Automatic annotation (TrEMBL):
Keyword Acetylation: yes
Residue positions binding Mg(2+): V537, H539, V542
Alphabetic keyword roster: Acetylation, ATP-binding, Ligase, Magnesium, Metal-binding, Nucleotide-binding
Domain spans labelled Acetyl-coenzyme A synthetase N-terminal: 23-80
Modified sites of kind N6-acetyllysine: K609
Family matches, as PANTHER family: ACETYL-COENZYME A SYNTHETASE, ACETYL-COENZYME A SYNTHETASE 1
GO molecular function: acetate-CoA ligase activity; AMP binding; ATP binding; metal ion binding
Catalysed conversion reaction: acetate + ATP + CoA = acetyl-CoA + AMP + diphosphate
Family from the record: Belongs to the ATP-dependent AMP-binding enzyme family.
Record keyword Mitochondrion present: no
Name under which the protein is recorded: Acetyl-coenzyme A synthetase
Length: 649
């Protein structure tokens, strides 16, 4: 960790929306009178019926309720499209950059976005989708993904996007979980020069679970697919039959806009529910201020729309602001490690937002891939998803940003809808590895993990909670409000519990130290160790499994699985490979264990609880500091595990 500070240049600060003095003034106002502050900023979007109430929130266990702008009505799609048509109908809304650089990019204007979104909305209506119904999107990074999201918003349907890297089983669970009426997918999804057979995955998922769900299929490659007559519909055929006008539904601010499944420390992923009004205000405001977005700028967030970052910073935030946003279908290393930088040059990108794992991978390929591209349009660089190590930060700053682009290290979560702690590029002196200070209206607190009391000293370390609500906060877990309360409001009463550990330094800067629960962060993808464990134990030859994270140079964290086999099963390399493949098909490639250690026994307390602390230490190759093992039922298993550990650092 580094304590060197990088202040914004005087020139940058002078042209920025927010400088240091303005940040302080606005932050103080946002805390002293949240209703006045958010009442004012609520006006950055268009309301059909303006709100008169701003905030109505309780974090009290048993009656957690989060309401913002609750008597206002609006339509999110109209905010992202229609209200820009008078002035920007010919401006590019979305630049689509395909997987292969040999295929042409598309420039989709706000007018075309309007027409395509309305067509998609009319097609969905024709398939029987009504206000409040759920629609699952399982799509590559193609413009139709944005049309589909906005079409749902337009007719008041709730979308739930499933990342296209998830397996049929994971997809099926999510389709069932929200009782979706329609799944929107594509024939094949090209990525990094290979194609995933998305439609076939959908068929498999629906076969297992519900087989009367309709499917709207986008023709992306023209590849071979299996068709379900009467249930499957081609998007291009249906689109040709409907009008390019569809009146937007008048929605309440608190009507759900989308569900997005995310991993927690226990059980299966939970459906995070976001609102329409508060979410949009927060996504729009953070996109403009955190990236210092100005009209005419080209904004590129490299995330996938399957994650929250894609929701807020490819689609909703930028489009609500009338921005030009890039949607990239490919990967950073295809055809080679200069792809990101070539796309920046080609489309004259001004703000670039990516994950540390991508930067670490690209940094390892050498500087020439960056240096051969003209990056002179870059103004602001951002990172998200995991802590960034100072080496990667410095490389980003010097090699990519040429020392002239402020870096915004944005800390937030699926649950938070938008950034909660981040530098503002014209206001905040950055420190490599720190997400610095809170966004407006956000009150981070550090609690002592055992007593649960707030640590008031400036220098502090403990668990990170948030004291009060902000408009982008999730509202509930889909179909299970009790789980929502239990997960986020029961451990530390009166606060929103983030699940992250955090340190505050003498300057009041925040440094995320990682999850304090059983969630790991692999290549910026969030995963519950419990999910990987339950996939492993579903295999007939596995008796027991325990999964932990361990430090990984590129991925941030790797997946380390301890596996106890059934009595008569021989541990072999073939079986190890089979288990890797098994997890890929149960969850998806992102969940494949990096290391599998055969464990004849797992360290357990006398009451049978697995001591994960010990397993983490062994996986980290740091077994000198195992701590107290005297409560173990059989301490000798620890020696055996150390002896055969897989990560010898
Ligand atoms: C981690 C992604 C350090 C953190 C938007 C959080 C970060 C989890 C940062 C949420 C950051 C996200 N620095 N850690 N800038 N951003 N995290 O829900 O542990 O996929 O709780 O949302 O990622 O991951 P999620």
């Amino acid at each position: 960790m580094s304590d060197t500070k990088y202040p914004p240049s005087a020139e940058f600060a002078a042209n920025a929306h927010i400088d240091a003095a303005k940040y302080q003034e606005m932050y103080d106002a946002s805390i002293n009178d949240p209703a006045a502050f958010w009442g004012e900023h609520g006006k950055r979007i268009d309301w059909i019926k303006p709100f008169t109430k701003v905030k109505d929130v309780s974090f009290d266990l048993g009656s957690v309720a989060i309401n913002w702008y609750s008597d206002g009505t609006l339509n999110v799609a109209a905010n992202c499209i229609d209200r820009h048509l008078a002035t920007r109908s010919d401006q590019t809304a979305i630049i689509w950059e395909p997987d292969s650089p040999d295929e042409d990019a598309l420039h989709i204007t706000y007018q075309q976005l309007h027409d395509n979104t309305c067509r998609m909305a009319n097609v969905l209506k024709g398939l029987g989708v009504k206000r409040g119904d759920r629609v699952v999107l399982y799509l590559p990074m193609i413009p139709e993904a944005a049309y589909a999201m906005l079409a749902c918003a337009r007719i008041g349907a709730i979308h739930s996007i499933v990342f296209a890297g998830f397996s049929p089983d994971a997809l099926g669970a999510r389709v069932n979980g929200c009782d979706a009426k329609v799944v929107i997918t594509a024939d094949h999804a090209p990525r990094g020069g290979r194609a995933t057979k998305l439609k076939d995955n959908v068929n498999q998922a629906l076969l297992h679970d519900v087989d009367d769900v309709k499917c709207l299929v986008v023709k992306r490659t023209g590849g071979q697919i299996a068709w379900r007559e009467g249930l499957d519909f081609w998007w291009h055929e249906e689109a040709a039959k409907v009008s390019a006008e569809c009146p937007p539904e008048e929605m309440n601010a608190e009507d759900p806009l989308f569900i997005l499944y995310t991993s927690g420390s226990t059980g299966q992923p939970k459906g995070v529910v976001h609102s329409s009004g508060g979410y949009l205000v927060y996504a729009a405001m953070t996109q403009e201020l955190v990236f210092d977005y100005h009209p005419g700028d080209v904004f590129w967030c490299t995330a996938d729309v399957g994650w929250v970052t894609g929701h807020s910073y490819i689609v909703y935030g930028p489009l609500a602001n009338g921005a030009t946003t890039i949607m990239f279908e490919g990967v950073p290393t295809y055809p080679d490690a200069s792809r990101f930088w070539q796309v920046c040059e080609k489309h004259k990108v001004n703000q670039f937002y990516t994950a540390p794992t991508a930067l670490r991978a690209l940094m390892g390929q050498g500087n020439s891939f960056v240096e051969k591209c003209d990056l002179s349009d870059l103004k602001v660089l951002g990172t998200v998803g995991e802590p960034i190590n100072p080496e990667a930060w410095t490389w980003y700053n010097e090699v990519v940003g040429k020392g002239k682009c402020p870096i915004v290290d944005t800390w937030w979560q699926t649950e938070t809808g938008g950034h909660l702690m981040t530098p503002l590029p014209g206001a905040t002196a950055t420190k490599p590895g720190s997400c610095t200070t809170p966004f407006f209206g956000v009150q981070p607190v550090i609690l002592d993990p055992t007593s649960g009391t707030e640590i008031h000293e400036t220098e502090a370390e403990g668990v990170l909670c948030i004291k009060d609500s902000w408009p982008g906060q999730m509202r509930t877990v889909y179909g299970d409000h009790e789980r929502f309360e239990k997960t986020y409001f029961s451990d530390y009463k009166g606060y929103y519990f983030t699940g992250d550990g955090c340190r505050r330094d003498a300057d009041g800067y925040y440094w995320i130290t990682g999850r304090v629960d059983d969630v790991i962060n692999v290549s910026g993808h969030r995963m519950g160790t419990a999910e990987v464990e339950s996939a492993l134990v579903a295999h007939a030859q596995v008796a027991e499994a325990a999964v932990v994270g361990y430090p990984h140079d590129i991925k941030g964290q790797g997946i380390y699985a301890y596996v106890t086999l059934m009595n008569d099963v021989e541990p072999t390399d073939e079986l190890r490979k089979e288990l890797e493949k098994w997890v890929r098909t149960e969850i998806g490639p992102i969940a494949k264990p990096d290391l599998i250690q055969w464990a004849p026994g797992l360290p357990k307390t006398r009451s049978g609880k697995i001591m994960r602390r010990i397993l983490r230490k062994i996986a980290e190759d740091d077994f000198g500091a195992l701590g107290d093992t005297s409560t173990l039922a059989d301490p000798s298993v620890v020696d055996e595990l150390i002896e055969n550990r897989m990560n010898r650092g």
